[in-house]
Structure formats: structure tokens, C-alpha cells
UniProtKB/TrEMBL annotation, chains A, B:
Subunit structure: Homodimer.
Pfam families xrefs: APH
GO molecular function terms attached to this record: ATP binding; S-methyl-5-thioribose kinase activity
Highest taxon listed in the record's lineage: Bacteria
Cell wall biogenesis/degradation found in the keyword field: no
GO terms for biological process, alphabetical: methionine biosynthetic process
UniProt feature coiled coil, ranges: none
Record protein name field: S-methyl-5-thioribose kinase
Organism in which the protein naturally occurs: Alkalicella caledoniensis
Classification via InterPro entries: Aminoglycoside_PTrfase (IPR002575), Kinase-like_dom_sf (IPR011009), Methylthioribose_kinase (IPR009212)
The keyword Nucleotide-binding is assigned to this record: yes
Listed NCBIfam families: MTRK
Length: 412, 412
């Protein structure tokens, strides 16, 4: 396999594509994780190649997780999968999907549009920015992406071929552990200065009912093949400005449950809600407004999902299902309870594993930070154990508000 | 593709295998459905080839359902799948799996042991024969077959590769319609002489809650990939004598829910129970004893499944799951409720589709027959709608007995 480097990449592009008609081309290595530059990336080598005419991103998968070195093996085929799923989603929801220009299967390289006219959403949320169009865009993205890759729309035979094509044997192993099992991805850091989080973390993972419910959600994640999911949809994989969003990093894609992507994404809104509740360096009124914005975003993502899902159903559901009374409703009932479960698992396990979590790590005051983490853990545990009792999105929001109220009272 | 015929089969076997060392070989075409010969088969051409030394079965898949002619297309690859799943099960439960000798991928032919020293179970049940060892054997077969092809035992990566290898795009389409949707496999025969069944059939399929629950079970069947299931485990696919069983016809195999095979099989025991309740040509005491035997077989298949499943768990479950308190119990709770759902769907849809059903078709008296069908439909509907309330196998048996009691009272 040829390895692309800053030295050979220009020659490679000119030889294999017609993307650029004039030289010189400039090259920038953007694969390193660097919070200041607002980029996250653990598994690929990524370059920006550009001139005055255009700018593209070149992504090469290496057969291991970059940040863990060569001992952590991963299939480089994931780049082919990502390219294919981007092509597929480009047909369904082109407005939210980066354009792809070129795939080199032999060397696991693909070239896509440069999204640097947009920003990574996580860091914009950290900065307390508002994106009024986001919830509607995300609801539409999730609903259409789910519906049109599901067997509600596709013939069962096509659906099964998609499942086999995107079986994605290895990449799934990461998420199915990280999001559901404490300390699955590296040892717990018992020397952490954050003793409060460590103690809470030990306490949480001593509760049989928490461990059991995490494993039940993990089971749904691993075994239920309903639609092609993104599989790693957090706010760092959303590029955004006030008008539009683009979703990146689809290499975890496989045939999974309808509810996972939304659940995993909402975890980041619970975490921002918890963080802003305690960012004491920000004016109280401003951060409270932002907390309300975050909660309304959770609600609006869900209601827009339901709106667009209904729209897809009306327009395109197969006759097999259209006339089954109560079937759509049973899918949506199930959806909310699972979304809640996945949200809880994702937040909880990231926090109690004591790995980095930028939503909290930007909080400078240690007490604020540990309060924010504690609030999220309280919310996550409660909604995980009560997910089947929460029947509407308003009940979920109400529940979160009440838990925060109690948490504040107990603290004072 | 070469087509095997009685004329070329001997030459084919002698050329390609070392199975026989002496001639002449005799050939028998056993692919036709013939109730008197106690054989059922719709999708393959099957020959017995034998001499004084040994006897083997040669099975060739054709790319359509034999009984429907060339217009009903099916992948002939199913023979390769069947051969592979037989090899796999031969490793797990050799005592219940026919030996395979030869696979010809190019011509979709495979050769397996001749099971004619055993009988097809369905017709032995029709004759009111007892098989005291059967429930234990079947419980063991199902538990081990499920457990050792599940991710409770296999590494997730291996499990996913199995899922992709046995995706079985086409064959699954048959069962996922036949067992869950009325009239999915051929039009309803509105000219049937059995007007009573036709009327009940129309009534049942006018109930929204029945249609909805059938579709919910169908969803589980289609979307949940837990273990490699047989996919068509009825009593005609079980060869039996007083000492042993062999399970045949695995071409429907795919990664499905734990509960399907047992559910689908128990449907045949509910049907025999309903049939024997009304076989008025048989001595009342004898058939009542047989009904009790059928019910106790249902119970014992289940309790043996749980026994062997627990045994497999103790011996071989992965550490990931061994220490999760309540996880095994939650799998088994779910299992019973789904078994009940699949049993109900399979019986109900076969009956209300007015297709042939040998368990009832052997009843000569039309009133007896229609009573038997009516009883099964009553049981099927009730347990389908109440499957989540039935918490133990004893409750299920009790429920069946009570429904029969009420059914008899209403009739008299």
C-alpha cells in the first residue's frame, strides 16, 4: 500500500484526478487532534490540498488507530465503506452530505470536499453560540437517512444486501464497547486528580441495574438491523454555520437501530446542558438562556424527526406497512424509549470511564466541572432506568429539569 | 449448470466421489411431495443413490420453487448455504445433524447421509405415536445450536462475519411472508368447500390488533440477528425414531432471533393438540392421553432448552456477559414471550391462508377438522395478544387448556 505524505500527495492528486487544472497546490496536514484548531480525529491521516481554484480533503485510512499506534488494528477498508455510505446518503440527503470526488480502493484513500467554510459544532456550542436552524436540519437528516435505508422503504432483499455490504466487522467493535461498558477502551485512570468523578464512577458501576440496562441497550445496538446508521454522530462530526450542516466521518456505519444516532447525538446536548448549568464564569442569565436553548434543541430535533418521518411514511412507505394500523406508532413509541437509553449510556460511560470529554474539559474551575459531570451522571442514570416510563419528549425535558432542580438543592 | 437426472447421476457420483467402491448403484427419485410416502419437499430435486454397501441422498437446488415452476425464482446458492450450516452444526451438535459428504458449488449439488432409517416426525404424530426422548433432544438441539452461534459465545467479529455469510437474501423472503401475513403465498381460495374456515379467516384478518401483532413478530424475525437459526423447523424437517432425531432442510438459515425456531416448531404441537382434541374416530381416552403428551412435550422442549442454555452459559459464556447480573434472565424472559408470538403467527397464518396443513388434512370428518382448526385459531389469537402476560411455561400450558375448555363449552 502506498502511504500518502506531504511530499507525494500533489503528484498523486494530479496523476489520479482532474480536480485541479493549475498549479501550484498547497498541502496542509490536518490529521492531528488539536482542540485549539477545533479538530478531532483518531483513526485517519487527513490532508487539505488546495490552490486559488478549490480546496479538497484527502483522507487515508491506516490499519490501526493513529493515536494508539500500530498495535491497535483496524481495517483500512473502512474508507471504502465511508465513501460508499457518503455516496448513498448523497442521494438521500445531498444537502447534509459532503461531496466525494475520488476513491482509491487499493490504497484506501478518498477525496472529498473541504468543509472549512463550516465550523465543528462541538466547539461552537462550547462558545455558547446559537444555531436556530440546526434542530430542523438534524431532524430531517436523521428521519430521511433512517427511513430511506430501512426496509419500510427498501425491498427486503435490497435491505439485506445493504446489511451484508455494510457489515463493518471491525469498526463497530469500538462503539459497542466505548458507549456501553465502563473502561472498555483503556484502563480507568486511578491517579486522576478528579477524585470526585472517580468516586462517583466507582459507585455507578457498582450498581447491578445500571450495568444490566447498559448491556440491554448494547444488545439492541449490536443485534437490531433496521437502517444504515452513522454510528458515531457526535457534535464534532457535524460541520455547521448559521445556514447549513454537513455530517462527516461515516466509517462506523452499519445496519443498526433507528434510535442510535439520535440517542448518541443527544448525549452531547445533555452534556452541554450540564456544563452550562455550572459555567460560573458566564453571566447567570445568559447561561440559563443557553440551557433552555439546549433543551429546546433536544425537543426540536425529536419533533422534527417525527415530522419528517411521518412525511416520508406518507410519501414512500411500502404498501405492506401503510395499511397496518398502529405499526408506525409502535415504531415511534419504541424509538423514543431507545433514544433515551442510548443518550444515557453514551454520556454515562464516557464520563465514568474518565476519558477526555471536551464539553466538560473546557470548564476551568474544577468545582464547576465536577458539578457539571455529576449533574450529567444523575440525569443519565435516572433516564436510563426510567426510559420505558417516559412517553413523550416533553416528559423527558420535564424530567431533566426536575433532576437538575433536585441536584442543585442537594448541593446547596 | 449441469442438471442431474436418473440417467446421469450414477456416472456423476462415481466420477466425483469415493463414496461407493462397487457397482451397480440404484437410483430413486424422492423429490416429489407424496403424503403416503411421508415426504414433503417443494424446492429441490432429491435422489437416493444406493447399493448393498451404503445409501446417500443427492440434493440439487434449482433456481425456482419446484412446485411453482420456473416463474418463482430462488437462488440455487441455498444449497451451498445449507451445506455450510450443516457442517457448522455438525461441529456443535453432531448427534442431531445429518452427515454431509460432498459439495459441488458450480452445480449446486450436495450429498448427505440417507436418513431413511428414520421417519418424518409429522406423520408419526399424525399416527399418535409417542417419542419420550424427543423433548429432551430438541431442547438440547435448540439451546446448543442457538448458544454456540450467538455472540454470547462467539467474538463479535466472528458473529458478524457469520451474519454476512448467511445473509441468505432470497430464501428468507418466503418465511417472512408465509408465517406472518395472511395470503402472502398465493391467493386465498374463496371457492374452498371449507366455508367455516374461510369465514373465520376473514374475521381474524379484519382485526387490527391481530394484524399489528403479526407485523411486530415479523419485525423481530426480520431485524434481530442473535444466532444462526434453522428458519423452517417444522415436524416434517425432523427425522425421528424412538432413540434419535436428525434435523434436515437448513436452506432457510440466517442470523435471526433465538426464539424463532422453537416458536415455529411448537406451532405444530398446538396444531396436533387441536387436531387430536377432535379426532372423533379415535377412542376418547387415548386421544386425551395423547393431547396431554403433546402439551407435556411443549413444556419439556422449553424446560430442556432452559436447562441446556443454562449449561452452555455456565460452561462457555464470555466473561463480558457472565458477570452481568440479570442479563441471562432477561434473555430468557424475552425468549418465552417471543416463542409464544412466533408459535401463534405460524399456526394462525397457515390456517387463515387456507393452504394445506397435513396435521388437519388427515382428519376425515369435516366437522372434526373444522373444529380442530377453530380451536387452534382460538388458541393462536389469544396467546398472540397476551404473550407478554404469560410469564412461565406452566402458565402457557394452563392457558391452552382453559381456552380449549371454553371452546368446547361454547360449541356444545
Amino acid at each position: 500500500m502506498m502511504i500518502i505524505t506531504p511530499d507525494n500527495i500533489v503528484e498523486y492528486i494530479l496523476k489520479n484526478t482532474d480536480l485541479f487544472s493549475s498549479e501550484p497546490l498547497l498541502v496542509e496536514d490536518i490529521s492531528d487532534y488539536n482542540p485549539e484548531e477545533e479538530l478531532e480525529g483518531f483513526v485517519n491521516y487527513i490532508y487539505r490540498v488546495y490552490n486559488q481554484e478549490r480546496s479538497v480533503i484527502v483522507k487515508q485510512a491506516r490499519p490501526y488507530l493513529k493515536c494508539f499506534g500500530e498495535s491497535y488494528a483496524l481495517t483500512p477498508l473502512r474508507n471504502l465503506l465511508e465513501h460508499e455510505t457518503l455516496r448513498l446518503r448523497g442521494e438521500i440527503i445531498p444537502q447534509f452530505t459532503p461531496k466525494t470526488f475520488y476513491i482509491d480502493k487499493e490504497n484506501n484513500i478518498f477525496i472529498m470536499e473541504d468543509l472549512s467554510y463550516l465550523k465543528v459544532m462541538r466547539f461552537q456550542l462550547n462558545k455558547m453560540l446559537y444555531f436556530p436552524k440546526f434542530a430542523k436540519q438534524m431532524g430531517e437528516y436523521l428521519a430521511k437517512s433512517n427511513f430511506y435505508t430501512s426496509e419500510l422503504y427498501l425491498e427486503p432483499e435490497t435491505h439485506r444486501l445493504l446489511q451484508a455490504s455494510f457489515i463493518n466487522v471491525n469498526m463497530r467493535s469500538i462503539m459497542e464497547n466505548v458507549a456501553f461498558i465502563r473502561g472498555a477502551f483503556g484502563d480507568i485512570d486511578y491517579n486522576t486528580p478528579n477524585k470526585k468523578l472517580l468516586n462517583v464512577s466507582e459507585l455507578v458501576w457498582s450498581k447491578d441495574e445500571i450495568i444490566l440496562e447498559c448491556h440491554k441497550m448494547r444488545d439492541i445496538f449490536m443485534k437490531r438491523g433496521e437502517c444504515l446508521i452513522h454510528g458515531d454522530l457526535h457534535t464534532s462530526n457535524i460541520f455547521i454555520n448559521s445556514d447549513q450542516i454537513k455530517i462527516i466521518d461515516m466509517e462506523y456505519t452499519f445496519m443498526g437501530p433507528y434510535s442510535f444516532d439520535m440517542g448518541y447525538l443527544l448525549a452531547n446536548f445533555i452534556s452541554q446542558f450540564s456544563a452550562f448549568t455550572f459555567k460560573s464564569n458566564i453571566d447567570q442569565e445568559k447561561r440559563e438562556s443557553y440551557c433552555l436553548y439546549l433543551l429546546s434543541t433536544i425537543k426540536e430535533i425529536y419533533t422534527n424527526y417525527v415530522y419528517y418521518f411521518n412525511q416520508c411514511w406518507e410519501k414512500d412507505v411500502k404498501d405492506t406497512y401503510r395499511h397496518v394500523k398502529g405499526y408506525k406508532e409502535s415504531i415511534l413509541d419504541n424509538f423514543l424509549s431507545e433514544v433515551i437509553g442510548f443518550t444515557a449510556c453514551a454520556n454515562l460511560n464516557r464520563l465514568i470511564s474518565l476519558t477526555g470529554y471536551p464539553d466538560y474539559d473546557v470548564i476551568e474551575d474544577e468545582t464547576d466541572k465536577s458539578n457539571a459531570q455529576g449533574l450529567s451522571i444523575a440525569i443519565d442514570q435516572f433516564i436510563l432506568l426510567n426510559r420505558n416510563k417516559i412517553k413523550t419528549i416533553d416528559e423527558l425535558i420535564q424530567t431533566i429539569v426536575e433532576i437538575r432542580k433536585k441536584f442543585m438543592e442537594n448541593r446547596s
